[in-house]
Amino acid sequence: MFSTLRHKLTSAASALFLLAAVAVPASAQETISDEHIAAARETVMAANAIRAFDNVLPLMADRTRTLFIQSNPANTTEIDLVVNEVALKLAERRPELNRVVYEVWARRFSIEELNQLAEFYKSPLGQKYSKVEPELRALSIGAAKQWGDAISTEMVTLVREELNKRQAPEAETKSE
Questions:
Q1: Cβ within 8 Å of residue 90, ≥6 positions away
Q2: Model pLDDT, residue 176
């Protein structure tokens, strides 16, 4: 049981870090200067771009808790206690994730660009954008899904009508 659990948790953690590694183009594997990382950090913090990852550890803790409780429901209290203790210890490693995010930004923007972005995100408009960006993204995704669903329905209808038109002369020719 513990071997399977450890494998699942290791796989989940590995996937997270593999995603970050894959996000870096192979040609950009060179070392990034401290100045570049500092500019990226400043921009990421100004943009609140890292807040989306605040739930990673709590979600992993919940999944771990659920996995252990499913295997041993009679031990729920102790499982809760141990999962919370381990999660708190692992929280100290959050700077590792932050560093990866800073590197991702640093690999895609020059120091000058990062400074310009930080300046924008520190402006009133940038602060407003930073606050509403998650909502904008969610609403935009919802709008795209709704539009896609409508277009899909319309496409099916139009294709069906066109196929019926094209098949109607064939049916008349065969009946003659």
A1: 57
A2: 65
Hey, is 23 helix, strand or coil?
coil
Whether the CB-CB separation of 67 and 16 falls below 8 Å is answered with no
* Cα dist from 175 to 166, 168, 170, whole Å: 15, 11, 9
The per-residue pLDDT for range 56-82, each reduced to its tens digit, is 999 999 999 999 999 999 999 999 999
pTM above 0.85, yes or no: no
What's the CA gap between 21 and 150, in Å, rounded?
37
Distances (CA, A) of 100 to 10, 32, 36, 70: 18, 11, 13, 33
Residue 28 has pLDDT above 90, yes or no: no
CA distance 49 to 72: 38
